[in-house]
Amino acid sequence: MTSQTPVWFITAASSGFGKYMAFEALHRGHKVIASARSTTRIQDLKDAGADIVALDVTSPLPELQKIAKEANDKYGYITHLVNAAGYILVGAVEETSPEEDYDTFNTNVFGTLNVSKAFLPYLRATPGEKTIANFGSIASWRAGAGYGLYNGTKFAISGISEAMREELAPFNVKVTVIEPGYFRTGFLNAGARVESKQHIQAYDDSLVGQLRQQLVKTDNQQRGDVVKGAKVCVDILTHSGLAEGKDIPQRVALGSDSPPTIRGKMKDTEELLAEWDSITTNTDHE
Question: Does the predicted model carry a pTM greater than 0.85?
Fold first, then answer.
C-alpha cells in the first residue's frame, strides 16, 4: 500500500458485507464512498462519515463511467473497489425463466464486470497498490440442486477474477475473489431471496424442494458473523491486523465452512481424475 489514506468504493453497501466492510474501513479512518440503488438505504453510513451515491450495477456502462469519474474526482484517487452486489435465484433450471436467468447474471456477473470497467482507468492511473475485491461464494466451488443459476454466476465471478488478477498485475492492481460460506446477513431474507415464478410440483419431493425448505430454516441462523468476516476482509485488503505482512491472495475462503467445502471439492475432483485418467488422456496425436 501507499502512504495515502485508502479510499474505498463499495457497491451494495446497504446490507451484508458491503455495509460492514464500509463501517470497518470508516472505523480505521479510511475514506469510503458507499453506493446502493437508493441512498435512503445507506443513510447510516453517511451518518458515520461515508460519502454516499446512488448506483445500480445493472445501469448502462456510460452511466457507471460517469459515477466512477465523480467518485475518483472526490478525493483524486481510488485505492479499493469492492464489488459486493448479488443475490440468489432459487429454483430448478427447468423452473427459472430466461428473464430470471438474465436478471441474475446481469446483477451478479455483468454488474461486477461493468463497474470494474468503469473504475479501472482510474485504478490503473493511481500510484501504488490498488485492489479489487469481487464477491464469489462457496457456491463458486460446489453446485447444488435448486440454485444452479446462482452457482453459474459465482463460478463465473471466480474465473473472471483469476483472469483479471493476471491482466492487472502489471499495473499493481491486486484482484481477489472473496468466497464466503454461510454468514448471517440478509442474503436469505424473504425480501432478498428471489424464488422462480414458475413452481413445478414434480420437484417438490426432490433435492430442489429440500433446498427451498433448508434455505428458509437457515435464514438468520447462519454460523458466520458478518462483522467479524468484514474485519478479516479489510485486514486482508490492507495488509494489516491478522494479515500484516501477507500479500493479497488470489481468493479468500472466508468462514469456517468455506475451506472444508473447497477441500471436499478438490478431493472429489482428484478421485474423479484418478479414476478416468487412463481413458480420457489417451487422445494425443501419435
Answer: yes
Q: Catalytic annotation on 150?
A: yes
pLDDT, residue 1, reads: 43
| 8 Å CB contact between 81 and 123 | yes
Spatial distance between the Cα atoms of 211 and 60, rounded to a whole number of angstroms: 34
Summarised one tens digit per residue, pLDDT across range 163-210 is 999 999 999 999 999 999 988 887 777 777 889 999 999 999 999 988
Q: Are 78 and 100 in contact (CB under 8 A)?
A: no
- CATH number belonging to the domain at 7-280, selected among 1.20.1250.20, 3.40.50.720, 3.40.50.150, 3.40.190.10: 3.40.50.720
Lookup: cell for 95 = 423452473
Q: What is the mean pLDDT of the chain?
A: 94
Distances (CA, A) of 225 to 179, 186, 215: 14, 12, 17
- Written as one letter, the residue type at 261 is T
Q: Catalytic one among 20, 77, 150, 182? A: 150
| Distances, alpha carbon 133 to alpha carbons 29, 97, 179, 247, in Å | 20, 30, 10, 14
